[in-house]
What does this fold into?
Amino acid sequence: MSNWIARGLRRGILTTSYPRRDDAMPPTYRGRASVTSDDDAASLERGAAACLSAAIRVDGTAILAERCFQCGECARAAPSAFATTNDHELATVGDADVDAARERLRKRAAAFGGSVHLRHVDCGSDASTEQELQAIFNPFYDVNRLGIFMTATPRHADILVASGVVTHAMIEPLRRAFEAMPEPKIVVALGSAACSGTIYEEGAVAGAVDRFLPVEVKIPGTPPAPLTIIHGLWVALGRATARRGVRDL
Amino acid sequence: MIANLRADEAAELATLKVRDGARFLWLFCERVGDATIARYVVDRQGRLESFEGVATPGTRSLSKDVPASRWYEQEARYRYGVDFGGPSDEPSIVKAPEADAERMRRALGDEVSTVLYGPIRSGIVESACWVIETAGEDFICVHPSMFFKHRGLEKRFEGVRLELAPLIAEHVSGVTPSSHATAFCRTVEAALGIDVPKRARAARAILVELERIHQHLDSLAKLADDGSLSVGSALTFAAKERVHRMLCDATGHRFARGSICIGGVREDVFSSLSQSAVRMLDDVEREALSALEGLFGTQSLMDRLVGTGRLSQRTVSDYGGVGPVARGSGVVNDARLTDGWLYTRLEAEEARETEGDALARARVRETEIRRSFQHVRNMLDAAPAGPYRTKLSEGSLRGEAAAFGRVESPQGELIYFVRYHNGLHRVAIRSASFANWPLFVPSLPGNIFTDFSFIEHSFGLVQAETDR
It folds into this structure.
């Protein structure tokens, strides 16, 4: 018989203090891709041509985090114009005024009290987003300490976490899950595919989550790292400020 | 390209091979002009052989002689409208338990009820649906309803620049991207005659073995969670987390995406892997094995796994099972054997169990985790020198060719087919999860409702790669 108490204690504390204290991804992590120099039009074009998800704006001035699936091809194709950093706080809101968005979300989340229940719906993911969402409950991140829990039924849920690009077959189940949730509720799109549809072809899939539900917060990443997810949930609860995102991708 | 045979004749040839001891692998279709070509693929002593023919109305169904073909025929009928005779609304992907189910339905009469389970289920799971016939607690028959997650990925490859195409393969299953990218690249390399340096082959093999470790840990941690073993599950998930951190250090991505390209690997993954592995591998291994030792030493968990979801050797070979599911029932097929290097028959046999239950499949995973750690270490010790990538010359990218490629993914044998015509013309994928779903159906009758998640997690399949 295993002595699980001893086994558990022997490990000591592994858990991060994030988001109350800073934590970082390793320096090698390709979190955010960005344009470092727009001097050379040819480099910008080369980078844009290497982007399968059209995340680089045609004028080459910005990379849309919600469309980026973190492959790093732009920086490989044109290192003089593009670079990736290990930034993991990628969440965005659609509002022009991000502080007002934070205040609005904070007020809505006040109804949840200290504990928030998530209902996850897989709309057509590549399976990695689910494993990273699962990972926020492992001892390294343990979001129960932040009052975040999973719930089996949408009736008990405060936040709907939708992962993956929405396939035709999942439109209806997704809508029904949303409708079954009591007010107030918040919808979060988890992963770049859910935020924008990334590489998936129009027609083959139905599109990003915000075509079907009122998405408040987008959490980019393919898949988003556990720290990215925690940050995004913190944004959804009005406890962190997000960047301004681009909607109607 | 128009085939010289009719699909009937191709099917006949495949059947003859199967009677002769070959293993049925795959049936898939390709549209050429107005015609639909059906392609039957078998494995004969480690070599892939394929037979193609034009599908005609009333193409002979193989499912009587070769039960493994049944699921593929259903997909061909559904996606390509191939007419295999017989009714098109057959309820089950597997014939075997139907007769028993019918008997039980008759005996139990009104007590049988039908439950729809999915596509959204409790917990953090992928979308899939089961129609469950039950009389209270027992499963009588289960009909899977899948492809909720169909994303048109095979089609997405067409016309994409070759150097970016492996990134699409990584979307087929985001949890085993190295297996998919390697299988896809091997296929293209075989079609175009591109030579891959030894250092790149070793780097790919390391990535695939690390993938096997984190996916097997995932499956075992979920089993522990099903058995309400929260500390055991937490420690196993923690070990998995360490593998992701090691990969992130070495490759810049927690699942090592974007590491593999046609002709080799994108960057010298080998040296970055060996640097982080030197620091971390021992710790990761110690944590993982200690957690597993705890799991297998906990009687309450073992009690839930023993005899649960049993599959006979006969059923597994009839329905073409692969990977840990097959090895748990004593059927050993392992695509690593056909690599022709690194991996020996002896090692493949080592992970073989005969009980065919959820415990046997869990033990297979445990053995494979140990073995994969050794493999990674051996490959790092014997680091092949030289380049990590073959530069593709413009000339090598012209022309017309077709090829198959295989990789032993964590879920089992993964096969890609690529037809190349001055670019990617048709890509078809036979994933291990797709091959194993038909076995899920006969594993359930005789078990009760609460066994469902144990059986599901002992299979450890990925819905995303099934639905594509």
Q: What stands out?
A: Helices of chain A lie at 4-10, 41-49, 73-77, 98-110, 128-135, 171-180, 192-196, 226-236. Chain A has eight helices and nine strands.
